[in-house]
Amino acid sequence: MKAIGIRRHLPTDHPSCFVEVETPRPVAEGRDLLIEVKAVSVNPVDYKMRGRVAPTDGAPHILGYDAAGIVSRIGPEVTMFRPGDKVFYAGSIKRPGTNSQFHLVDERIVGPMPKSLDFATAAALPLTTLTAWEALFDRLDIDRTGKHDGRVLLIIGGAGGVGSMAIQLAKKLARLCVIATASRPQSADWCRKLGADHIVDHSKDLTAQLKDIAQPVPDYILCLSDTATYFPVMSSLIAPQGRICAVVSATKPLDLQPLMDKSASFHWEYMFTRSAHQTPDMIEQHRLLRETSVLIDKGVLTPTDTEILRPINAANLAHAHGKLEAGRTIGKIVLADW
């Protein structure tokens, strides 16, 4: 089968940044599904993992997490899917990635693909939806049926993949007042289109801007950018007994002391926790993606792909990684068709 991998970390403009190879088709065992991959999308974790690969003369390292495709074979313990099913998922950080024609994934982190979407559009959704959902409803403990209607959520980094889903989930399910940060007119317009009530600029004084819109103490903060950079202002802004959640690793230790007198809490969200640690509730990601499909098909949630590159090859994958590394993307970049 065709696959796209890396042998060592190279810049995206290097002709050997990614290499195209032929590898054996894997065999489904246990609860594994063998997926015929039709489309993939890229996330910041892709280029971060690319930067960690050590030089090797052996088989190239296959990256990629988001995918949409067709179940080709199933392991003997599979109960939820059958060959021919269309599915989407975000994979596991501990297994070979989705940048290959066929890919193995545990059925417990796979969902039925939305019937209203094609493979390319569906591939943009899994990782960012899972991250946003877990951050809002598991880590921040926001009620997704609207019991916290009117409470204020500040999303730092609203126009990226996770932010694009977090705005929708917070507004359309939880019915929060959503403040999203964006630093460019295009990204601000994107956030408004997805349902943000207010836009503030994360490159400027957030405290002053929140006062200007009469929302100086958000009940919740979701940080999708550099955690260490924004932690001091988040600690200052968060409401008493409020909650902060971050998804980006801290580049230096965080001083939690300012949260104490507010009884405020800080939480990490890492979408791969359940699959990497085989947690007892690992199947929640299947349920989550299944519900996402229903919400997409009902028109409650909107797809977030903004660019589709064809075909899936080394050059297009390098191009997608380069755009993500530049930090100026809106929504999601997808690669489709081999």
Automatic annotation (TrEMBL):
<comment type="similarity">
    <text>Belongs to the zinc-containing alcohol dehydrogenase family. Quinone oxidoreductase subfamily.</text>
</comment>
<dbReference type="InterPro" id="IPR013149">
    <property type="entry name" value="ADH-like_C"/>
</dbReference>
<dbReference type="InterPro" id="IPR051603">
    <property type="entry name" value="Zinc-ADH_QOR/CCCR"/>
</dbReference>
<dbReference type="Pfam" id="PF00107">
    <property type="entry name" value="ADH_zinc_N"/>
</dbReference>
<keyword id="KW-0521">NADP</keyword>
<keyword id="KW-0560">Oxidoreductase</keyword>
<feature type="domain" description="Enoyl reductase (ER)">
    <location>
        <begin position="12"/>
        <end position="335"/>
    </location>
</feature>
<keyword id="KW-0862">Zinc</keyword>
<dbReference type="InterPro" id="IPR036291">
    <property type="entry name" value="NAD(P)-bd_dom_sf"/>
</dbReference>
<dbReference type="InterPro" id="IPR013154">
    <property type="entry name" value="ADH-like_N"/>
</dbReference>
<keyword id="KW-0479">Metal-binding</keyword>
<dbReference type="InterPro" id="IPR011032">
    <property type="entry name" value="GroES-like_sf"/>
</dbReference>
<protein>
    <recommendedName>
        <fullName>Zinc-type alcohol dehydrogenase-like protein</fullName>
    </recommendedName>
</protein>
<dbReference type="Pfam" id="PF08240">
    <property type="entry name" value="ADH_N"/>
</dbReference>
<dbReference type="InterPro" id="IPR014182">
    <property type="entry name" value="ADH_Zn_typ-1"/>
</dbReference>
<dbReference type="InterPro" id="IPR020843">
    <property type="entry name" value="ER"/>
</dbReference>
